[in-house]
Task: inverse folding
């Protein structure tokens, strides 16, 4: 509020000013590319499951998954939401109680699966949100 | 694990680094089945092989869909229409039905009538077809359904001849007399016509799904232009004794309800 700001200004003029805390090297290092939030490949193989007697197609699908840290600063991370920025700030202020933003899928795609049922009828079904196309910080 | 593996060489997660125990494998399989909306692993009896007309039709549809999913264009109707270019010529014109655009599941049903039953002399050329619609996943609503039968060219025996092909729903069966039939569609064709014939059985399929005891199958008859009934085989219609890839079957299109039902864990 205006009153507080005035008060702060008065204080600044009389008391030695504490330098604002800038992100330490450790903070920057935590967003290293090795640990940064990103998409990883993960293939679910219907063939390896031994399901080829009833799944006609596909042989499997690249489900993928998201993994990595969403650390300050978030510029390095893909698709960080506005909420993730707030979450990071609150985490920096209270690291013990507030977790960092989560690395999670931002873009999911569908796959189609063709399979037999118990009566040898054939089903072609579209499954939404099966393949992670992109990850980001939430 | 053997069946789920990380394509990335870097170490990211501990569960990838160890082989799953037997019960864990089983649980993982259950989880994947749950994602697919299946209570258990299906055990199909593939006595006729995977290369019957219905699986082939569905595989063509799958390939068309998969190719077009990559391009991220088109509606379901386009995919369905393009089927006819790869699965034999079609004699019927597919109407631009809006419901096909948002269908997200297609299911084919094999004909379960194993033998041509002895019908009365009046209906000796009728053929019967039965389909099991009892295993339709929960939450699916039929938006369209077709009975498909293949017709070959029979120009030599019936030069310049036309046939009237009729499809009936069996309404009531009796032990001592002919079944009551409800005419679904009649269509006039030339003897020289060749390709898949599609008959709209959407209303009938909905009735069968809602009241399975009403599912008494379909009957099919062929008449020459003189009004005389003709053996469907002589008219070029492929039946049970025909090639596997031209067997009659039923196909239905479904729309999934918004609420995805998952088993409670």
Result:
């Amino acid at each position: 509020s205006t009153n507080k700001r005035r008060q702060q200004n008065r204080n600044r003029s009389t008391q030695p000013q504490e330098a604002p805390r800038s992100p330490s090297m450790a903070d920057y290092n935590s967003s290293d590319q090795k640990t940064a939030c990103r998409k990883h490949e993960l293939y679910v193989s219907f063939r390896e499951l031994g399901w080829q007697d009833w799944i006609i197609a596909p042989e499997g699908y690249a489900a993928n998954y998201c993994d990595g840290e969403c650390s300050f600063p978030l510029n390095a991370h893909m698709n960080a939401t506005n909420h993730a920025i707030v979450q990071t700030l609150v985490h920096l202020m209270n690291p013990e109680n507030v977790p960092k933003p989560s690395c999670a899928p931002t873009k999911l795609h569908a796959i189609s699966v063709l399979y037999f049922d118990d009566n040898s009828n054939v089903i072609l079904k579209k499954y939404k949100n099966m393949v992670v196309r992109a990850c980001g910080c939430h | 694990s053997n069946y789920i593996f990380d394509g990335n060489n870097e170490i990211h997660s501990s569960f990838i680094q160890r082989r799953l125990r037997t019960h864990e494998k089983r649980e993982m399989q259950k989880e994947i089945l749950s994602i697919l909306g299946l209570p258990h692993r299906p055990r199909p009896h593939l006595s006729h092989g995977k290369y019957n007309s219905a699986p082939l039709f569905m595989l063509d549809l799958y390939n068309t869909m998969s190719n077009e999913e990559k391009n991220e264009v088109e509606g379901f109707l386009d995919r369905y229409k393009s089927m006819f270019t790869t699965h034999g010529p079609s004699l019927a014109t597919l109407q631009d039905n809006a419901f096909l655009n948002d269908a997200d599941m297609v299911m084919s049903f094999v004909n379960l009538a194993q033998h041509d039953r002895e019908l009365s002399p009046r209906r000796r050329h009728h053929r019967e077809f039965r389909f099991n619609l009892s295993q339709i996943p929960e939450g699916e609503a039929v938006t369209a359904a077709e009975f498909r039968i293949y017709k070959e060219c029979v120009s030599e025996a019936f030069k310049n001849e036309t046939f009237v092909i009729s499809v009936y729903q069996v309404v009531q069966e009796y032990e001592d007399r002919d079944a009551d039939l409800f005419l679904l569609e009649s269509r006039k064709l030339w003897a020289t016509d060749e390709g898949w014939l599609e008959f709209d059985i959407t209303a009938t399929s909905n009735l069968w799904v809602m009241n399975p005891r009403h599912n008494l199958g379909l009957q099919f008859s062929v008449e020459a232009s003189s009004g005389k009934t003709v053996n469907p085989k002589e008219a070029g219609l492929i039946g049970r004794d025909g090639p596997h890839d031209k067997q009659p079957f039923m196909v239905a299109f479904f729309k999934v309800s918004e609420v995805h039902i998952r088993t409670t864990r």
